[in-house]
């Protein structure tokens, strides 16, 4: 058996102990297995058992075996491998320390740890396998593998292999020159052959350090190291050639090299400034321009440079009265608005001030902003002044100016004047925000921007004022919508009052909303008044006393509900409505009775005419009309004529033809041979059927 290889000469007790260990460990009885081998002293036996543990994948037993072997390095490696999650990889580490290389390779492959397998190949000198593994399965460590192989090849003096591997590892720029440094000719051949810019640059620097500048220039050119080229040429005083290289290459670093040398040599200040500008190094160029009084160049450079340089240049210009206007421009460009504005006022540069005003921010001094706004308003530019105040968050001042000079507030302006609500605003901040919104809403309302005013009052949380503004707009659709979403009693009532001013008689939806809003607003007295109005409309326009009766019933219901909450003054209204309802009901019933019992109907109508308050409930003209039509149809013309005369005395200003059919009037006069009187009119009567379509919508409201 392969587990016992090397133990042929061992004692019988040792072999028996090994057999017992194998038996018990195979059964999983590790206590008996350890008890069987605890007396074994031979290191060879323990090593054999450790190998057996690798094959049986028993790492815990292997640790005991390594301890008895005295193999500290292997024991340490096994202990440190506990952080590796793959058990096969941990077994492979143990196998390496037991010189079981084939088993280790198999276990590494099985574990899927290609990085550890790569390291294993490198450690065992299997470089081709290591490279193959890195290229196919361990790309993360490919360059590291090439570098390690290059170091190995360098140690073995395999120069070509080392150069190739250093190149593939990306470290050839430094490692190959280091390796070949003691062989100058080989190094030079490599540099020429490689055409690598980094290597050529290093080689050129090396040649320059040896004083071989002509050769160094050639290699700097190959490496396209223009700053170094310019530096070497300037050291020889060849500024023209250096300038050509800078212009052709466009290298900023090369331009800086040339400008610095020109400045040092004091050859040409303007050219030095030119090349500093080309290098985008404006600070030294500005310094040169200031030193040599080149003010025109200084302005151009300052505008291209940083804020600090602009401010320094502005201070320089400020010292001379002839160039202070340039100082204003530079202060403005550098963001020093306060200083720029101060100079504008001092020098009366108002054209420039207009430009600066457009760029002011909240960080500008409030005093200066107020001064600019005052100047703009003083010169008639009120809108620009308002926009400036809005931009700098001086909202109160902006609103005051809008009110004073009647500047129309647009929607964008209103939004910019609205302070945003934050989750951590203090009570004072919240109060200020609400007051500003209300003031803004009032200002918009005064200007006729009612929808905008509504929006701002709503944002302020004042729905009552928002509805008042919306009512002025006359936008019925939005008024109905706003009332519906506001869920506020006084808003409901205001909306209902507004809807009553419309032609609700012809629009059933408006009538529904009036009733709904009064109901939701708990305005029962107002709702009762509306039902009372509906009843009167039914009587006056449609002569529909049945619908009027229903409306009056609803009005009484509302008043009875309101009575329990506000008894003052309601009792009289209830009494009055009750009397009206009784009279309306009597006439409505009489009209219904006519088809069945005309005499009874006539008696009831005559009784109604004798009621003292009949005019407050019904139109007496309708009663007279019914009686006249009845007697004329019965050919009792004299009674009909008597009623016509009575009606004329009772209602002298009313056109009788409105209540009595013109043909009936003519028939009565003809029968009695009485001429028609012109003052009574002879037009045709407007009947209820003519307006039937108009009244349909009210049918099922009461």
Automatic annotation (TrEMBL):
Pfam families in alphabetical order: TPR_IF140-IFT172, TPR_IF140_C
List each copy of the IF140 C-terminal TPR domain by range: 525-647
Give the Gene3D superfamilies listed for this entry.
1.25.40.470
Q: Which UniProt keywords apply?
A: Cell projection, Cilium, Repeat, WD repeat
Please classify the protein's predominant subcellular localization into one broad category. Answer: other
Question: What Gene Ontology terms for biological process does this UniProt record contain?
Answer: intraciliary retrograde transport
Which InterPro entries does the record associate with it?
A: ARM-type_fold, TPR_IF140/IFT172/WDR19, TPR_IF140_C
Region Disordered, as annotated, extends over: 679-702
Q: Which domain of life is it from?
A: Eukaryota
The keyword Acetylation is annotated on this UniProt entry: no
Its Gene Ontology cellular component terms are: axoneme; ciliary basal body; intraciliary transport particle A
What positions does the domain IF140/IFT172/WDR19 TPR occupy? 28-517
Q: Where does this polypeptide localize?
A: Cell projection, Cilium
Ligase: is it a keyword of this entry? no
Which protein are we looking at?
Answer: Intraflagellar transport protein 140 homolog
Task: Look up and give the organism this protein is from.
Answer: Geodia barretti
